[in-house]
Structures are given as structure tokens and as C-alpha cells.
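Much of the work behind modern protein science is quiet bookkeeping, done one molecule at a time. The protein below has been through that process, and both of its lines are reproduced in full.


***
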Amino acid sequence: MQNEKIIYDDENHKCIVFSFDDEEADESFLAVNQYLIIHNNSAILIDPGSQSVFEEVYDAVCRYIDIKNLKYIFYSHQDPDVAGSISQW
């Protein structure tokens, strides 16, 4: 399941929140929020999630920016639900 919302938008900045369910977690329900912050033509992705949501997050990011303009990826902590996709990025 995906939920996507633009929470800020002006001519130079945009902040989008994505929420993807970790569908591989059969015994538990995880919904991790991913944030894309765009400043002019550069962006940072915050907490991009687990391996199982990588493709969905990647596709969502590409809807807003050219992937070559993703300059930073920030993880708030090392848990797999937040940082599991690091090797795919």
C-alpha cells in the first residue's frame, strides 16, 4: 500500500512524504515514512525504507526528480525497516 502527499511546495522547494507498507513482514505490519526534500534541482531522501519497498520508493522519487539529482540519502537509524535498502541505492 502506498500513500503519497506533498506537504510543502513553492517555486524553489518541495517536500513529499511517502508511506509504504513492508509487505514482506508477514507477522508484523510496518509502515515507514520516506521523505523527499527538493531544493531547486537537488534532493535528499530521508529514511528510504527496507529492501522490499525499494522499487516503489525509487519509482516515486523518479516522479518528482531525475534520479541523478538525488544528492543525499539520510538514514535516521540502522533498523532494516528504515535502512535495509542501502545496498540497492
